[in-house]
């Protein structure tokens, strides 16, 4: 894998920068830059702008509305949008469910659901974790019992990100209580407007309503909304998680943040000298840059492998309140940092905790 960009790839970078300069709304970029909350309307607007250009589903094949980009083009887009302070694409529909439907969905499901993801008709959320089934996801208990042409769903999901906005939820449900844990799970698509669904907010320490609990009481779901085969959902869930874990890496955003950190450390003073000149700080900065370069290379390698016909493999395991009206403390870029830092601690847990990721690497790659 050559990490040097070709002239064509550099030209593509220029194209992306021109698009962002022309089409990214300044008020949305300012919100992202200063760590303010994005509304659903902001995110839908940005998705629509990307879709109009044909760049929204940039990991989908051309025949289903994707742009036909290479791995490197997707990487360049990720980095440039982060530098421009564009919102990250909400992944649940386009980056998580989309690949599962493309790989395992029926033709009818693809024709129905994929265009609705593209045009924003459906906003999706993820129904995986439960109060007793987080890292041990196979221990889930939310049950779906077949009743004629429908499933009847009862149970609970938790940590459902942006579920308060969702029209649809893709769920892992237990369809065989007698089978081994992984062998009795199915993958079901559920309309959030169905009677019997209740969404309760979970308010985080920063006051943000980002995640939810979702309760299902005798929720009736068409059997046609079963993806793939009954009791094979664990296979589809693992496939989806490889895409989620690759997306979690956030290489573009991390690189943009690192460049900004270098800028800030050069402007801030310590004992009359730039902070970047402090030996201890410079050493920490160097270590961070090495870690980031390693992550960038690993992420590109995983994506390159996927581009040749596979899904990302085991390698993928590798804000202040807007209502605050007080006097700003410190520079404007500092305001959202603490809230963002604490919120991002979740990255070591969701998608599988760090311990689970190490176990996957140990078994699937090191064969230990």
Throw out a few tags for this protein.
single chain, 368 residues, alpha+beta, four-stranded mixed β-sheet, four-stranded antiparallel β-sheet
Describe this structure in words.
The protein is globular, with a radius of gyration of 22 Å. Mean pLDDT is 86; it is low at 314-325. It has eleven helices and ten strands. Helix 1 runs parallel beside helix 4, helix 4 runs parallel beside helix 8 (251-267) and helix 5 packs antiparallel against helix 6. It has helices at 7-23, 26-34, 40-53, 71-83, 91-104, 107-118, 233-248, 251-267, 279-307, 337-343, 354-364; strands spanning 124-127, 143-147, 150-158, 168-174, 185-191, 197-203, 209-222, 226-227, 269-270, 273-274. It starts with 6 loop residues before the first helix and ends with a helix. It has 368 residues and is of the alpha+beta class. The strands form three sheets. The protein has a four-stranded mixed sheet with strand order 1-4-5-8. It has a four-stranded antiparallel sheet with strand order 2-3-7-6, with no helix packed on it.
């Amino acid at each position: 894998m050559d990490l040097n960009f070709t002239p064509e790839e550099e030209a593509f970078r220029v194209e992306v920068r021109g698009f962002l300069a022309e089409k990214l709304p300044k008020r949305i970029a300012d919100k992202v830059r200063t760590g303010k909350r994005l509304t659903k309307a902001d995110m839908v607007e940005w998705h629509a702008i990307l879709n109009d250009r044909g760049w929204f589903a940039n990991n989908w094949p051309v025949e289903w509305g994707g742009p036909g980009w290479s791995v490197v083009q997707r990487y360049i887009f990720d980095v440039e949008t982060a530098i421009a302070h564009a919102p990250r694409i909400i992944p649940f529909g386009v980056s998580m469910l989309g690949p599962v439907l493309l790989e395992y969905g029926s033709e009818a499901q693809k024709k129905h659901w994929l265009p609705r993801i593209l045009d924003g008709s459906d906003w999706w959320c993820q129904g995986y974790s439960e109060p007793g089934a987080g890292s041990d996801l196979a221990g889930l208990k939310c049950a779906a019992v077949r009743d004629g042409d429908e499933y009847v769903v009862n149970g609970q999901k938790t940590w459902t990100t942006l579920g308060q906005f969702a029209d649809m939820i893709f769920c892992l449900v237990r369809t065989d209580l007698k089978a081994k844990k992984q062998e009795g799970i199915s993958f079901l698509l559920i309309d959030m407007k169905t009677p019997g669904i209740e969404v309760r907010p979970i308010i985080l320490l920063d006051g943000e309503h980002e995640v939810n609990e979702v309760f299902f009481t005798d929720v009736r779901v068409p059997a046609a909304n079963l993806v793939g085969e009954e009791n094979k959902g664990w296979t589809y869930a693992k496939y989806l998680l490889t895409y989620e874990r690759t997306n979690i890496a956030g290489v573009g955003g991390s690189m943009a943040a690192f460049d900004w950190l270098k800028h800030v450390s050069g402007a801030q003073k310590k004992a009359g000298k730039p902070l970047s000149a402090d030996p201890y700080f410079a050493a920490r900065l160097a270590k961070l840059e090495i870690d980031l370069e390693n992550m960038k290379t690993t992420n590109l390698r995983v994506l390159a492998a996927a581009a040749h016909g596979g899904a990302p493999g085991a390698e993928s395991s590798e804000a202040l309140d807007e209502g605050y009206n007080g006097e700003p403390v410190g520079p404007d870029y500092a305001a959202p940092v603490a809230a963002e830092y604490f919120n991002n601690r979740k990255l070591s847990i969701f998608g599988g905790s760090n311990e689970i990721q190490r176990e996957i690497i140990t078994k699937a790659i090191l064969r230990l």
